[in-house]
Here is the input.
Amino acid sequence: MPPEQSIRVLLADDQGLVRDGFAMILSAQPDITIVGEAADGAEAIRAARELDPDVVLMDVRMPNVDGIEATAAICRETRAKVLVLTTFDLDEYVYDALRAGASGFLLKDMRRGELVDAVRVVAAGEALLAPTVTRRLIADVVGRGGPVAAGPRTDARLETLTVRETDALRQVARGLSNAEIARAMYVTEHTVKTHVSSLLSKLGLRDRVQAVVLAYESGLVQPGETSPPAHS
Here is the structure.
């Protein structure tokens, strides 16, 4: 019997062998249960509505309805978190997946332990990017395909943030962890968590990935920017 707090996972990939491999890895974990599988985006949407998973592992390139459209529908209509899987570290669809509401992005060549950890992280409400993807990923993708604003603070929602929350958002957009942000801002990790939670609430965002996208789209952070200042 799975534990009461078992993480319910739906697998969406058009390759049966890939689904089988993921199912074997994840089913071996006492806190993870595979509740269903889907071979294309349309099936994934239906299964997410019917099975109420906590996490959907979503392939990007699938027939009929692709992973981007399916991600958008699932994030809009269900409580599930979507973890997008791709074979490319700079996939042309990554930015679209993040904008569609995906909470994570992983490469298919990750180690099995990384897959298990990713599912747990996303299920816990955190955002995740593949460890093998550099921190330039979002900036690169936005720079190539996203409607980045020419100047900062073009989104009126940013005006609701305090100076410290704005600084925290800049650091989140750089891909820094809470510990790294704490060091950069000379505060405790608890304070960082408070800032991040507050800015997500004020901006009406679900997680850190959406915050990163907003930071670039609004022009608060520019593609290629590596060291935004933190106020004291």
Q: What stands out?
A: Strands lie at 7-12, 32-38, 55-59, 81-86, 104-107, 128-129.
